[in-house]
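hiii so um. not sure if this is the right channel but i have a protein structure encoded as tokens and i wanna go backwards to a sequence. like what aa goes where. can anyone help
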């Protein structure tokens, strides 16, 4: 029997005004629900511009406490309950002074706060100086049992690591969501000659969908964000949803804000996992001990 669920992804540009970004996202979530979305996911760190382009300790002021009592969570819980949707939202978490995380929260369709995932893999590349801001996650890989689906959440840089997707799928995830902020860096107005980054980014995630017999849904930023040094990032948008065969069911544009909405049949996850035994049955777990090492010399 079909188990149809409608996924909504919010792809938008961001301003320097945190309140404006938040209100804009809330409006987009409402619009996604109006179009029939049951589960809606924001882009990474949606309340602000992507501040990790520079190292600036004053930007820790953007962080907030994250629990069921915080203002942002209360607002999102009321929104989820009123619309009867699941919300996945990416936030900058202040755990304690000097201790911060890149965190995603999951709120069920009755408005209950189900918990959070803290980003495990933290990049440190030009214009992506996340190690300055974020402590690696310590909650492990998690699946949230929502009204509509078994939902796994990973964040951006986690996309490149098959182990993260596998461990999430092994807990029963039918859909893995990736709130994301990725694009082409631009230094002094010049973009480096790297042209295949986007293709690799999409292909590896479609591979996660195939290898784990699940849907993958990725919400990315869009538009150019300049930083205080005159450099910046052209966020390439192209948020997408892939099915367990790796087919892209829907893809957003590369240069425009968009609310991506797409129905998926969760019964296809069971069908694929029963028909293609490589996701779980044929794994040789006795031969994988090397994965616990950083490198095999």
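sure thing!! here u go:
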């Amino acid at each position: 029997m079909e188990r149809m669920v409608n996924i909504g992804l919010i792809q938008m540009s961001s301003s320097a005004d945190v309140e404006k970004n938040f209100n804009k996202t809330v409006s987009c979530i409402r619009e996604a629900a109006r179009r029939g979305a049951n589960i809606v996911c924001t882009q990474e760190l949606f309340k602000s511009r992507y501040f990790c382009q520079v190292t600036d300790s004053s930007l820790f002021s953007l962080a907030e406490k994250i629990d069921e009592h915080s203002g942002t969570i209360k607002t999102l819980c009321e929104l989820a309950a009123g619309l009867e949707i699941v919300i996945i939202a990416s936030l900058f978490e202040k755990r304690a002074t000097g201790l911060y995380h890149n965190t995603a929260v999951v709120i069920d369709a009755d408005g209950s706060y189900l918990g959070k995932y803290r980003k495990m893999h933290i990049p440190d590349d030009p214009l992506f100086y996340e190690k300055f801001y974020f402590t690696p996650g310590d909650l492990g890989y998690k699946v949230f049992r929502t009204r509509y689906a078994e939902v796994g959440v990973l964040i951006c840089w986690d996309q490149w690591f098959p182990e993260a997707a596998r461990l999430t799928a092994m807990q029963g995830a039918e859909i893995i969501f990736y709130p994301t902020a990725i694009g082409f860096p631009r230094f002094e107005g010049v973009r480096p000659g790297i042209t295949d980054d986007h293709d690799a980014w999409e292909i590896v995630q479609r591979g996660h969908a195939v290898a784990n017999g699940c849907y993958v849904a990725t919400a990315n930023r869009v538009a150019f964000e300049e930083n205080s040094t005159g450099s910046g990032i052209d966020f390439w948008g192209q948020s997408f949803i892939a099915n367990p065969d790796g087919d892209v069911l829907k893809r957003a544009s590369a240069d425009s804000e968009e609310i991506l909405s797409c129905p998926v049949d969760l019964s296809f996850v069971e069908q694929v996992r029963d028909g293609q035994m490589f996701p779980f049955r044929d794994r040789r777990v006795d031969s994988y001990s090397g994965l616990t090492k950083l490198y095999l010399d």
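oh and The chain has one domain: 4-283.
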